[in-house]
């Protein structure tokens, strides 16, 4: 069975593995122990102790926090119950003027702000930009991901979550 | 009639029986056990590798027969081998989107009793480019031939080429001005075009008299038929070696194995759950010549997608909430939607093991009737389906990628494909003859970023993973334009920790013609349709067209003065305006205008991909390299990424790490100072929704989605806590 060291997985996740090695990993049979190794890499990265259950974005994790399962930023900020859209507890910056769009697109033609705006979802604690939506004005926010966390652990990983 | 049916049942009954068995058992053709695979796995794998080799070899041979630079240079072709019922067993590389669309074509003929009339016999050649039967768009012309072994139908060989000219209302393959079926070009509707391995002369005459550039289509027909015959003879030889009974069983087991492999791959790479995303497409044609006022000339489409992965590994994609079909060329049929799904899966999940129709069988598409994904009117045009397919399946790639990130396979996460406009042309060639062509250099746009590195620059399109822009010299042989520039577009990838791949822009001098029609298709306007992921920004919107009529380029050249070779980086005044005299033209959206002539200059930009991750985490050293090599501007490095560059002793950009850290700290503070809680934003925006204080096209989009989808209506109402039906569709019955 293919398997890599935790150090290799750490460097891969950080984008620091040399490309030839990355390329070999991409082409090889997948390593079935990846998930828990990657979770361990992320766990090392964060300063908090809540066990990570699932990464959901570059710096967002679902973790077990006491009796609750919450979405937490790498900095420790809690976005609340993992079943709810974390964006509702984020800070937002909307770019819907030529001037504000030009800050991100200094040399290109721009969309019509009447047709399209950019919504930046930011951690209110550390300022990390977690997600960007491009949507028509008035369009509801997207709930990107509702994982079947219990089904995943029970049926695919063979390690049912406690309390489920 | 078949001399000998494939089984005791006739073909149509056999197909229906196969579908029934799948329904009842959940397994392809009712195959619950892979007997031959279990008996001799090595023989099983070797045989499939042989079939794949037949396909790859046949395609390469056929590309040498084609006259089309689209097929020869860019590889716009795919071939495959099918079961008697029309399910793909093995396929080549190339435009794999069509493997399943050809499957639909074969099944359509079977279900429409082609056994009776026009009959299916050894040596017959059938062709189709009708998307409601099984293709994506008119230029995707497919040919299939039955494979008989000792009088028994044992399979089909099929091939598709994308034609560069389809004989529609506007020249080229993707007929951007088509607003209904009758202007899309030459249709071949599941037609028997040849017998005894020979293409009928009357069919060729029809092509010659209805196309602007028949040499491409006709020679591609010969190339496809040659590849089909090549595959057919290889399969017959193989059957003579392994026996007919073995073939009939193993070919089905290959597909069931493919289905199981797809389910297993999903369980291995992803996380079960519900994933959501959306994209948009804008169309601007008001006042442009040729458009009939059959619908709104300017419109905005929303494309929401909900993907569900269940614990058995099945992937379902649901398009509920999207827009109705319209009087434009961008509608898509279920066959095209299937094709988009197939080509995406083959890139993202089927990179090992058996790749065939089994992968498609492990998925499900929910395409709401009456929408652009599944029109309830077969007269609609689908000539440029890719315009909506590409952004839609770009969303699919991002949804899959989120599942890869969640599972820890970050190296597989890929922000995805892009919608990128292409050029169609026709008129008088540089040789003084009529011509028509699609310029396929668009097959090398920028890709979305990966979760571990930047996207591919000028090297990716979703529909053909074997991406290639073709050589300038070859394109110049085929059109009355010469290149005066082909260069990277700086900042054309979406910003992010990892930026999207950059696109390129070409600039041409129109040469040796008095009448050149230039049009563009798949040209979205006024929106971002190539999104980012995990904090990455979307790629820039489609760039406007810039042309110079009656330019003074020849005078400048005679005087040895500098020319402009690209539009430059000033969004308000292009380098063309700075350098060339003449009548300067800037056109938003699809380029539909009067013909050009020698001495005019035309430019066209392709699109880059979306970014991944927070821009303030981008590597400063890599960014300095990007600036040095023209992928990013200094302005973007400083303003967007917060990277301070200074010059080294040779004047090259050098990252100032300490100053960058300081600048980024300040930018994060600015971010937080400007941002407001989402709850505050929702409270403020609700008033705007209640008043429907939006542009007319936005209001129309909401009204259309509300009329078609109760789920969209409920989600929209619930989110803002208002009754959107009474706001956007007053007076309409619920």
UniProtKB/TrEMBL annotation, chain A:
Pfam families named among the record's database cross-references: Acetone_carb_G
Entry protein name: Acetone carboxylase subunit gamma
Domain of life of the native organism: Bacteria
Record InterPro entries: Aceto_COase_bsu/gsu
UniProtKB/TrEMBL annotation, chain B:
GO biological process terms, semicolon-separated: glutathione metabolic process
Alphabetized Pfam families for the sequence: Hydantoinase_B
Lineage top rank: taxon: Bacteria
GO cellular component, one term: cytosol
GO function term, MF aspect, one: 5-oxoprolinase (ATP-hydrolyzing) activity
Annotated Hydantoinase B/oxoprolinase domain residues: 40-614
Alphabetical list of InterPro entries matching this protein: Hydantoinase_B, Oxoprolinase-like
Protein name: 5-oxoprolinase
């Amino acid at each position: 069975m293919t398997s890599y060291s935790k150090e290799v997985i750490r460097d891969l996740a950080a984008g620091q593995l040399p490309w030839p090695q990355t390329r070999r990993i991409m082409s090889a049979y997948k390593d079935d122990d990846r998930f828990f190794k990657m979770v361990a890499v992320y766990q090392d990265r964060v300063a908090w102790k809540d066990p990570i259950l699932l990464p959901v974005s570059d710096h967002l994790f679902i973790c077990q926090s006491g009796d609750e399962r919450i979405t937490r930023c790498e900095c420790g900020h809690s976005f609340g119950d993992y079943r709810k859209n974390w964006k509702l507890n984020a800070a937002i910056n909307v770019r819907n003027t030529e001037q504000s769009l030009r800050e991100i697109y200094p040399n290109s033609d721009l969309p019509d702000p009447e047709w399209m705006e950019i919504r930046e979802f930011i951690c209110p604690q550390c300022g990390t930009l977690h997600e960007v939506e491009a949507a028509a004005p008035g369009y509801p926010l997207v709930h990107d991901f509702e994982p079947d966390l219990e089904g995943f652990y029970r049926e695919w990983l063979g390690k049912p979550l406690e309390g489920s | 009639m078949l001399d000998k049916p494939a089984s005791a049942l006739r073909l149509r009954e056999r197909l229906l029986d196969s579908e029934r068995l799948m329904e009842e058992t959940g397994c392809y053709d009712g195959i619950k056990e892979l007997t031959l695979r279990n008996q001799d796995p090595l023989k099983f794998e070797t045989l499939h590798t042989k079939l794949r080799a037949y396909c790859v070899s046949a395609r390469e041979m056929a590309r040498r027969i084609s006259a089309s630079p689209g097929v020869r240079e860019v590889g716009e072709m795919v071939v495959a081998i099918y079961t008697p019922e029309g399910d793909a067993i093995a396929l080549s590389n190339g435009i794999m989107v069509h493997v399943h669309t050809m499957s639909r074509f074969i099944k359509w003929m079977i279900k429409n009793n082609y056994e009776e009339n026009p009959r299916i016999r050894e040596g017959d050649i059938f062709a189709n480019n009708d998307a409601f039967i099984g293709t994506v768009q008119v230029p995707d012309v497919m040919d299939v031939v039955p494979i008989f072994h000792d009088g028994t139908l044992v399979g089909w060989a099929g091939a598709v080429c994308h034609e560069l000219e389809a004989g529609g209302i506007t020249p080229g393959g993707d007929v951007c001005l088509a607003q209904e079926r009758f202007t899309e070009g030459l249709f071949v509707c599941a037609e028997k075009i040849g017998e005894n391995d020979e293409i009928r002369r009357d069919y060729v005459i029809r092509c010659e008299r209805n196309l602007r550039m028949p040499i491409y289509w006709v020679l591609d027909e010969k190339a496809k038929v040659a590849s089909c015959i090549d595959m057919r003879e290889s399969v017959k030889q193989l059957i003579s070696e392994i026996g007919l009974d073995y073939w009939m069983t193993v070919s089905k087991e290959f597909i069931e194995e493919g289905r199981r492999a797809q389910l297993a791959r999903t369980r291995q790479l992803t996380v079960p759950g519900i994933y959501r995303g959306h994209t948009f497409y804008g169309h601007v044609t008001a006042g442009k010549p040729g458009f009939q006022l059959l619908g709104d000339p300017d419109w905005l489409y929303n494309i929401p997608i909900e993907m569900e992965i269940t614990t058995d590994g099945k992937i379902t994609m649901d398009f509920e909430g999207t827009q109705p079909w319209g009087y434009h060329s961008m509608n898509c049929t279920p066959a095209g939607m299937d094709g988009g799904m197939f080509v995406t899966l083959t890139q993202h999940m089927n990179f090992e093991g058996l790749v065939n129709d089994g992968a498609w069988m492990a998925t499900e598409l929910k395409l709401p009737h009456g929408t652009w994904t599944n029109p309830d009117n077969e007269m609609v045009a689908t000539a440029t389906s890719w315009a909506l397919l590409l952004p839609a399946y770009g969303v699919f790639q991002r949804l899959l990628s989120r599942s890869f990130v969640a599972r820890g396979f970050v190296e597989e996460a890929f922000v995805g494909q892009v919608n990128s406009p292409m050029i169609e042309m026709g008129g008088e060639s540089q040789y003084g003859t009529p011509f028509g062509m699609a310029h396929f250099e668009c097959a090398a746009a920028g890709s979305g970023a990966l979760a571990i590195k930047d996207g591919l620059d000028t090297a990716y399109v979703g529909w053909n993973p074997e991406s290639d822009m073709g050589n300038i010299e070859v394109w110049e042989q085929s059109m009355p334009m010469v290149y005066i520039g082909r260069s990277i577009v700086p900042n054309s990838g979406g910003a992010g920790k990892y930026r999207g791949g950059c696109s390129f822009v070409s600039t041409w001098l129109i040469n040796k013609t008095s009448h050149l029609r230039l049009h563009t298709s798949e040209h979205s306007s006024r929106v971002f349709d190539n999104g980012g992921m995990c904090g990455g920004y979307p790629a820039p919107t489609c760039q406007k067209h810039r042309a110079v009529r009656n330019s003074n380029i020849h005078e400048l050249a005679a005087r040895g003065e500098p020319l402009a070779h690209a539009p430059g980086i000033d969004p308000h005044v292009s380098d063309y305006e700075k350098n060339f005299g003449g009548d300067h033209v800037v056109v938003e959206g699809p380029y539909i205008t009067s013909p050009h002539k020698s001495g005019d200059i035309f430019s066209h930009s392709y699109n880059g991909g979306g970014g991944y991750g927070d821009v303030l985490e981008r590597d400063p050293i890599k960014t300095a390299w990007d600036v040095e090599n023209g992928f990013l501007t200094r302005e973007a490095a400083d303003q967007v990424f917060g990277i301070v560059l200074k010059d080294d002793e040779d004047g090259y950009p050098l990252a100032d790490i300490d100053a960058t850290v300081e600048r980024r700290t300040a930018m994060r503070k600015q971010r937080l100072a400007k941002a407001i809680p989402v709850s505050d934003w929702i409270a403020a925006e609700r008033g705007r929704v209640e008043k429907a204080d939006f542009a007319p096209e936005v209001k129309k989009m909401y009204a259309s989605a509300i009329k078609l989808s109760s789920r969209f209506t409920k989600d929209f109402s619930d989110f803002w806590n208002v009754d959107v039906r009474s706001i956007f569709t007053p007076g309409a019955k619920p």
